[in-house]
Give the backbone structure.
Amino acid sequence: METPVANGSGPAYPALAVLGVLNNGTNPDLVANRTGNVFVQQKPTYELPIPRPDL
């Protein structure tokens, strides 16, 4: 899953929530839930040159 982030004018620190469920056969399902923030740096306004090996 992708989450859109507006980071064109500066870095962003969006909140995210993740839910995971594991079907455990005849036993109750295992459920995990995590929330937090993720740092996304500012989108560069230029591309860095890619070094090319000598052929």
Remarks:
- The longest strand covers residues 15-22.
- The CA atoms of residues 6 and 12 lie 7 Å apart.
- The beta strands are 15-22, 30-37.
- The mean pLDDT is 84.
